[in-house]
Amino acid sequence: MGHNCCSKQKIKKGLWSPEEDEKLLNHINTFGHGSWSSVPKLAGLQRCGKSCRLRWINYLRPDLKRGPFSEIEERTIVDVHRILGNKWAQIAKHLPGRTDNEVKNFWNSCIKKKLIAQGFDPNTHNLLPSFKANNNNNNNIYACNMFSPSSFFSVNSSHVSADTSIDILEAPYLTLPSTSSPHTNHVDISLHECSTISTYEFQVQEQINPNVLTESMGINSVPTISTSHLYPISELENIVNESFQPITKSTNPKDILQSQQEEACEVVENEKPSVLNGAQTNIDASFGSSNFDLDFMECTELPCGMYNYQLSPMDQLTWNG
DNA sequence: AACGGAGACAACCGCTCTGAG
DNA sequence: TCTCAGAGCGGTTGTCTCCGT
After folding, report:
1. What is the CATH number of domain A18-60?
2. CA distances from A53 to A6, A33, A64, A106 (A)
3. Highest mean pLDDT pick, A149-153, A207-211, A233-237
4. Are A18-60 and A71-130 in the same CATH fold?
Protein backbone atom coordinates (compact mmCIF):
# COMPACT_ATOMS: atom_id res chain seq x y z
CA MET A 1 0.00 0.00 0.00
CA GLY A 2 2.37 2.66 1.17
CA HIS A 3 1.60 6.32 1.11
CA ASN A 4 0.40 7.83 -2.08
CA CYS A 5 2.51 10.91 -1.99
CA CYS A 6 5.64 8.88 -2.68
CA SER A 7 4.22 6.98 -5.61
CA LYS A 8 2.87 10.00 -7.41
CA GLN A 9 6.11 11.78 -7.93
CA LYS A 10 9.82 11.24 -7.98
CA ILE A 11 10.70 11.11 -4.36
CA LYS A 12 14.08 10.71 -2.82
CA LYS A 13 14.42 8.04 -0.17
CA GLY A 14 17.08 7.06 2.26
CA LEU A 15 19.21 9.14 4.54
CA TRP A 16 18.82 12.85 4.64
CA SER A 17 21.68 15.04 3.53
CA PRO A 18 22.74 18.09 5.56
CA GLU A 19 21.43 20.27 2.75
CA GLU A 20 18.01 18.70 2.98
CA ASP A 21 18.02 19.09 6.72
CA GLU A 22 18.85 22.74 6.36
CA LYS A 23 16.08 23.31 3.86
CA LEU A 24 13.52 21.63 6.05
CA LEU A 25 14.74 23.35 9.17
CA ASN A 26 14.70 26.77 7.55
CA HIS A 27 11.27 26.24 6.15
CA ILE A 28 9.71 25.08 9.39
CA ASN A 29 11.43 27.75 11.43
CA THR A 30 10.09 30.36 9.06
CA PHE A 31 6.64 29.10 8.18
CA GLY A 32 5.94 26.22 10.50
CA HIS A 33 5.02 22.88 9.06
CA GLY A 34 1.30 23.52 8.60
CA SER A 35 0.21 20.69 6.38
CA TRP A 36 3.02 18.21 6.08
CA SER A 37 1.95 17.24 2.61
CA SER A 38 2.71 20.73 1.39
CA VAL A 39 6.04 21.07 3.17
CA PRO A 40 8.24 19.31 0.58
CA LYS A 41 7.06 21.51 -2.23
CA LEU A 42 7.28 24.71 -0.24
CA ALA A 43 10.66 23.79 1.16
CA GLY A 44 12.04 22.67 -2.18
CA LEU A 45 12.61 19.08 -1.14
CA GLN A 46 12.31 15.93 -3.21
CA ARG A 47 10.74 14.14 -0.28
CA CYS A 48 7.26 13.17 0.71
CA GLY A 49 5.49 15.00 3.49
CA LYS A 50 5.56 11.95 5.61
CA SER A 51 9.30 11.70 5.38
CA CYS A 52 9.63 15.39 6.23
CA ARG A 53 7.44 14.99 9.25
CA LEU A 54 9.44 12.03 10.45
CA ARG A 55 12.74 13.81 9.92
CA TRP A 56 11.52 16.81 11.87
CA ILE A 57 10.05 14.82 14.72
CA ASN A 58 12.90 12.38 15.11
CA TYR A 59 15.91 14.51 14.32
CA LEU A 60 15.49 18.20 13.65
CA ARG A 61 13.15 19.29 16.42
CA PRO A 62 15.02 21.73 18.63
CA ASP A 63 13.81 20.26 21.90
CA LEU A 64 15.27 16.85 21.26
CA LYS A 65 17.66 15.41 23.77
CA ARG A 66 20.47 13.59 22.10
CA GLY A 67 22.89 11.17 23.64
CA PRO A 68 22.61 7.99 25.64
CA PHE A 69 19.67 7.21 27.85
CA SER A 70 20.14 7.82 31.53
CA GLU A 71 19.48 5.17 34.13
CA ILE A 72 16.30 6.95 35.18
CA GLU A 73 15.12 7.03 31.61
CA GLU A 74 15.77 3.32 31.32
CA ARG A 75 13.77 2.66 34.43
CA THR A 76 10.97 4.82 33.16
CA ILE A 77 10.84 3.00 29.86
CA VAL A 78 10.76 -0.40 31.50
CA ASP A 79 8.13 0.56 34.00
CA VAL A 80 5.80 2.26 31.56
CA HIS A 81 6.30 -0.51 29.07
CA ARG A 82 5.28 -3.03 31.67
CA ILE A 83 1.92 -1.33 31.91
CA LEU A 84 1.33 -0.06 28.42
CA GLY A 85 3.24 -2.50 26.28
CA ASN A 86 4.67 -1.32 22.98
CA LYS A 87 3.00 2.06 23.11
CA TRP A 88 6.16 3.86 22.17
CA ALA A 89 4.56 7.21 21.62
CA GLN A 90 2.92 7.05 25.04
CA ILE A 91 6.16 5.97 26.66
CA ALA A 92 8.07 8.73 24.92
CA LYS A 93 5.71 11.32 26.35
CA HIS A 94 7.18 10.60 29.75
CA LEU A 95 10.70 11.14 28.50
CA PRO A 96 11.19 14.78 27.61
CA GLY A 97 13.29 15.20 24.53
CA ARG A 98 13.00 11.61 23.45
CA THR A 99 11.05 10.36 20.48
CA ASP A 100 8.99 7.24 20.12
CA ASN A 101 11.40 6.00 17.51
CA GLU A 102 14.32 6.53 19.82
CA VAL A 103 12.60 4.75 22.68
CA LYS A 104 11.61 1.91 20.42
CA ASN A 105 15.12 1.49 19.09
CA PHE A 106 16.58 1.63 22.56
CA TRP A 107 14.14 -0.96 23.76
CA ASN A 108 14.81 -3.34 20.92
CA SER A 109 18.54 -2.95 20.92
CA CYS A 110 19.26 -2.74 24.60
CA ILE A 111 16.58 -3.09 27.25
CA LYS A 112 14.98 -6.12 25.71
CA LYS A 113 18.21 -8.03 25.85
CA LYS A 114 18.89 -6.97 29.39
CA LEU A 115 15.51 -8.20 30.53
CA ILE A 116 16.00 -11.51 28.82
CA ALA A 117 19.42 -11.83 30.35
CA GLN A 118 17.85 -11.30 33.76
CA GLY A 119 15.23 -13.96 33.16
CA PHE A 120 12.30 -11.75 32.25
CA ASP A 121 10.08 -11.98 29.26
CA PRO A 122 10.34 -8.50 27.70
CA ASN A 123 6.80 -8.69 26.40
CA THR A 124 5.02 -9.66 29.58
CA HIS A 125 7.72 -8.72 32.10
CA ASN A 126 7.02 -12.09 33.55
CA LEU A 127 9.61 -14.56 34.56
CA LEU A 128 10.74 -16.76 31.74
CA PRO A 129 9.82 -20.43 32.21
CA SER A 130 13.42 -21.46 32.59
CA PHE A 131 13.89 -18.83 35.25
CA LYS A 132 10.78 -19.98 37.05
CA ALA A 133 12.06 -23.51 37.01
CA ASN A 134 15.24 -22.43 38.67
CA ASN A 135 13.35 -20.55 41.32
CA ASN A 136 11.18 -23.53 42.06
CA ASN A 137 14.24 -25.06 43.59
CA ASN A 138 14.51 -22.16 45.98
CA ASN A 139 12.11 -22.62 48.83
CA ASN A 140 12.40 -19.07 49.98
CA ILE A 141 11.35 -17.27 46.85
CA TYR A 142 7.99 -17.59 45.21
CA ALA A 143 6.95 -15.71 42.19
CA CYS A 144 3.40 -14.68 41.62
CA ASN A 145 1.44 -12.30 39.50
CA MET A 146 0.08 -9.25 41.13
CA PHE A 147 -0.78 -6.12 39.24
CA SER A 148 2.48 -6.70 37.59
CA PRO A 149 2.94 -10.02 35.95
CA SER A 150 6.32 -10.31 37.56
CA SER A 151 6.35 -10.31 41.28
CA PHE A 152 8.15 -12.04 44.05
CA PHE A 153 6.77 -13.37 47.23
CA SER A 154 9.63 -13.90 49.57
CA VAL A 155 9.83 -15.36 52.98
CA ASN A 156 12.47 -14.61 55.49
CA SER A 157 14.77 -17.53 55.04
CA SER A 158 15.90 -17.69 58.61
CA HIS A 159 12.50 -18.85 59.74
CA VAL A 160 11.37 -21.12 56.98
CA SER A 161 11.85 -24.80 56.93
CA ALA A 162 13.35 -26.38 53.86
CA ASP A 163 10.20 -28.19 52.90
CA THR A 164 8.03 -25.13 52.82
CA SER A 165 7.31 -24.96 49.17
CA ILE A 166 4.21 -23.34 47.80
CA ASP A 167 3.78 -22.85 44.15
CA ILE A 168 1.91 -19.62 43.59
CA LEU A 169 3.52 -18.86 40.33
CA GLU A 170 0.30 -18.58 38.45
CA ALA A 171 -1.62 -16.35 40.83
CA PRO A 172 -2.44 -13.27 38.79
CA TYR A 173 -3.47 -11.13 41.71
CA LEU A 174 -2.55 -10.89 45.30
CA THR A 175 -5.38 -11.20 47.73
CA LEU A 176 -4.55 -10.37 51.28
CA PRO A 177 -5.58 -12.76 54.01
CA SER A 178 -8.46 -11.93 56.25
CA THR A 179 -7.70 -14.28 59.05
CA SER A 180 -5.98 -13.39 62.24
CA SER A 181 -3.56 -15.82 63.68
CA PRO A 182 -1.89 -16.75 66.93
CA HIS A 183 1.51 -15.25 67.36
CA THR A 184 3.79 -18.12 68.02
CA ASN A 185 6.89 -19.22 66.14
CA HIS A 186 6.56 -16.23 63.90
CA VAL A 187 8.07 -15.62 60.56
CA ASP A 188 8.28 -12.37 58.73
CA ILE A 189 6.52 -12.19 55.44
CA SER A 190 7.21 -9.51 52.93
CA LEU A 191 5.89 -9.12 49.47
CA HIS A 192 8.21 -7.70 46.93
CA GLU A 193 6.84 -6.64 43.65
CA CYS A 194 9.66 -7.55 41.38
CA SER A 195 9.79 -5.47 38.31
CA THR A 196 12.88 -3.75 37.17
CA ILE A 197 12.05 -0.84 39.37
CA SER A 198 9.44 -1.55 41.92
CA THR A 199 9.26 -3.03 45.33
CA TYR A 200 6.01 -3.41 47.16
CA GLU A 201 5.79 -4.21 50.78
CA PHE A 202 2.25 -4.64 51.98
CA GLN A 203 1.18 -4.51 55.53
CA VAL A 204 -1.32 -7.17 56.38
CA GLN A 205 -3.49 -6.10 59.26
CA GLU A 206 -5.90 -8.01 61.37
CA GLN A 207 -9.20 -6.91 59.86
CA ILE A 208 -7.91 -6.47 56.42
CA ASN A 209 -10.46 -6.56 53.69
CA PRO A 210 -9.52 -9.31 51.32
CA ASN A 211 -9.87 -7.06 48.35
CA VAL A 212 -7.67 -7.70 45.46
CA LEU A 213 -4.74 -5.39 45.55
CA THR A 214 -4.06 -3.72 42.31
CA GLU A 215 -1.73 -1.10 43.55
CA SER A 216 0.48 -0.05 40.78
CA MET A 217 3.42 2.09 40.12
CA GLY A 218 4.34 5.49 38.90
CA ILE A 219 7.33 7.16 37.46
CA ASN A 220 10.14 8.84 39.29
CA SER A 221 8.53 8.21 42.59
CA VAL A 222 9.97 6.78 45.71
CA PRO A 223 6.90 6.12 47.80
CA THR A 224 7.18 3.41 50.38
CA ILE A 225 4.84 1.09 52.14
CA SER A 226 6.91 -0.62 54.75
CA THR A 227 4.76 -3.32 56.10
CA SER A 228 4.93 -6.71 57.67
CA HIS A 229 2.85 -9.16 59.53
CA LEU A 230 3.67 -12.05 61.77
CA TYR A 231 2.33 -15.50 61.08
CA PRO A 232 3.06 -18.79 62.75
CA ILE A 233 5.26 -20.84 60.54
CA SER A 234 2.94 -23.80 60.89
CA GLU A 235 0.23 -21.85 59.14
CA LEU A 236 2.37 -20.36 56.48
CA GLU A 237 1.33 -22.69 53.73
CA ASN A 238 -2.36 -22.35 54.59
CA ILE A 239 -2.08 -18.60 54.71
CA VAL A 240 -0.42 -18.41 51.38
CA ASN A 241 -2.84 -20.85 49.83
CA GLU A 242 -5.73 -18.81 51.13
CA SER A 243 -4.21 -15.52 50.26
CA PHE A 244 -3.04 -16.07 46.74
CA GLN A 245 -6.02 -17.09 44.74
CA PRO A 246 -6.09 -16.91 41.00
CA ILE A 247 -9.09 -14.96 39.82
CA THR A 248 -8.16 -14.72 36.23
CA LYS A 249 -10.81 -15.28 33.63
CA SER A 250 -8.40 -15.94 30.87
CA THR A 251 -4.99 -17.44 30.60
CA ASN A 252 -4.18 -15.30 27.63
CA PRO A 253 -1.47 -12.85 28.76
CA LYS A 254 -2.99 -10.09 26.67
CA ASP A 255 -6.38 -10.59 28.26
CA ILE A 256 -4.86 -10.67 31.69
CA LEU A 257 -2.92 -7.50 31.09
CA GLN A 258 -5.94 -5.77 29.67
CA SER A 259 -8.10 -6.73 32.59
CA GLN A 260 -5.38 -5.55 34.93
CA GLN A 261 -5.22 -2.22 33.16
CA GLU A 262 -8.98 -1.86 33.24
CA GLU A 263 -9.03 -2.71 36.89
CA ALA A 264 -6.23 -0.30 37.52
CA CYS A 265 -8.24 2.37 35.81
CA GLU A 266 -11.16 1.66 38.09
CA VAL A 267 -8.93 1.97 41.09
CA VAL A 268 -7.82 5.37 39.90
CA GLU A 269 -11.38 6.53 39.56
CA ASN A 270 -12.83 4.95 42.65
CA GLU A 271 -10.18 4.31 45.20
CA LYS A 272 -7.35 6.73 44.75
CA PRO A 273 -8.45 9.03 47.57
CA SER A 274 -8.82 6.22 50.05
CA VAL A 275 -5.53 4.71 49.07
CA LEU A 276 -3.75 8.00 49.38
CA ASN A 277 -5.32 8.73 52.72
CA GLY A 278 -4.85 5.26 54.01
CA ALA A 279 -7.94 5.84 56.11
CA GLN A 280 -10.45 3.54 54.53
CA THR A 281 -8.07 0.86 53.59
CA ASN A 282 -5.76 -1.19 55.61
CA ILE A 283 -2.75 -0.03 53.73
CA ASP A 284 -0.70 2.69 55.24
CA ALA A 285 0.89 4.47 52.37
CA SER A 286 3.53 7.08 52.79
CA PHE A 287 4.30 9.52 50.02
CA GLY A 288 6.42 11.82 52.05
CA SER A 289 9.49 11.52 49.92
CA SER A 290 7.74 10.94 46.69
CA ASN A 291 7.83 12.97 43.55
CA PHE A 292 5.14 10.78 42.20
CA ASP A 293 3.85 12.00 38.89
CA LEU A 294 0.09 12.22 39.05
CA ASP A 295 -0.09 13.49 35.52
CA PHE A 296 1.54 10.32 34.48
CA MET A 297 -0.97 8.30 36.42
CA GLU A 298 -3.90 9.95 34.82
CA CYS A 299 -2.37 9.88 31.43
CA THR A 300 -1.59 6.21 31.58
CA GLU A 301 -4.70 5.33 33.54
CA LEU A 302 -2.83 3.93 36.45
CA PRO A 303 -3.67 3.75 40.08
CA CYS A 304 -1.39 5.21 42.66
CA GLY A 305 2.15 4.01 42.59
CA MET A 306 4.00 2.51 45.42
CA TYR A 307 7.46 1.32 45.02
CA ASN A 308 10.86 1.71 46.34
CA TYR A 309 13.89 1.95 44.14
CA GLN A 310 16.36 0.87 46.72
CA LEU A 311 14.74 -2.39 47.62
CA SER A 312 13.76 -3.64 44.22
CA PRO A 313 15.14 -7.07 43.54
CA MET A 314 15.66 -6.11 39.96
CA ASP A 315 17.72 -3.18 41.06
CA GLN A 316 20.11 -5.61 42.54
CA LEU A 317 20.61 -7.21 39.21
CA THR A 318 23.36 -6.01 37.02
CA TRP A 319 22.57 -4.54 33.66
CA ASN A 320 25.01 -6.19 31.43
CA GLY A 321 26.20 -3.77 28.82
C1' DA B 1 44.37 -5.00 5.59
C1' DA B 2 40.17 -7.41 4.62
C1' DC B 3 36.14 -9.50 6.00
C1' DG B 4 32.03 -10.59 8.57
C1' DG B 5 28.96 -10.20 12.44
C1' DA B 6 26.65 -7.43 15.84
C1' DG B 7 24.77 -3.34 17.47
C1' DA B 8 22.87 1.25 17.02
C1' DC B 9 20.38 4.30 14.69
C1' DA B 10 17.66 6.23 10.81
C1' DA B 11 14.11 5.75 7.77
C1' DC B 12 10.40 3.39 5.43
C1' DC B 13 6.07 0.69 5.18
C1' DG B 14 1.56 -0.38 6.18
C1' DC B 15 -2.06 0.27 8.97
C1' DT B 16 -5.37 2.92 11.96
C1' DC B 17 -7.36 7.05 13.51
C1' DT B 18 -9.42 11.51 12.88
C1' DG B 19 -11.57 15.33 11.00
C1' DA B 20 -13.41 17.80 7.11
C1' DG B 21 -16.55 17.92 3.38
C1' DT C 1 -23.42 8.26 7.02
C1' DC C 2 -19.80 7.86 3.87
C1' DT C 3 -15.47 9.02 1.70
C1' DC C 4 -11.03 10.70 1.56
C1' DA C 5 -6.79 12.91 2.80
C1' DG C 6 -3.64 13.85 6.33
C1' DA C 7 -1.53 12.64 10.60
C1' DG C 8 0.17 9.42 13.73
C1' DC C 9 1.79 5.02 15.30
C1' DG C 10 4.22 0.56 15.60
C1' DG C 11 6.73 -2.93 13.10
C1' DT C 12 10.27 -3.72 10.06
C1' DT C 13 14.12 -2.93 7.16
C1' DG C 14 18.20 -0.51 5.64
C1' DT C 15 22.57 1.60 6.55
C1' DC C 16 26.48 2.77 9.00
C1' DT C 17 30.02 1.94 12.44
C1' DC C 18 32.65 -0.72 15.43
C1' DC C 19 35.06 -4.67 16.76
C1' DG C 20 36.92 -9.22 16.59
C1' DT C 21 39.10 -12.63 13.67
Report:
1. 1.10.10
2. 14, 8, 14, 21
3. A233-237
4. yes
Q: How far is the CA of A233 from the C1' of C19 (A)?
A: 55
Residues with CB under 7 A from strand B: A 1-3, 6, 12-16, 47, 50-51, 54-55, 58-59, 68, 101-102, 104-106, 108-110, 113
Q: Is the pLDDT of residue A235 over 50?
A: no
The CA radius of gyration of chain A, in Å to the nearest whole number, is 24
Q: Where are the domains of chain A?
A: 18-60, 71-130
pTM for the structure as a whole:
0.54
**pLDDT, chain A, mean:** 53
What is the SS3 assignment for A230? strand
Question: Spelled out in words, what is the top-level CATH class assigned to the domain A71-130?
Answer: mainly alpha
Determine phi and psi for A262, rounding to 5 degrees.
Answer: -65, -40
Question: Which residues are in reach of strand C, CB within 7 A?
Answer: A 3-5, 14-15, 33-37, 49-50, 53, 86-90, 100-101, 104-105, 108
Residue A75, Ramachandran bin (φ over 0: left; ψ between -120 and 50: alpha; else beta): alpha
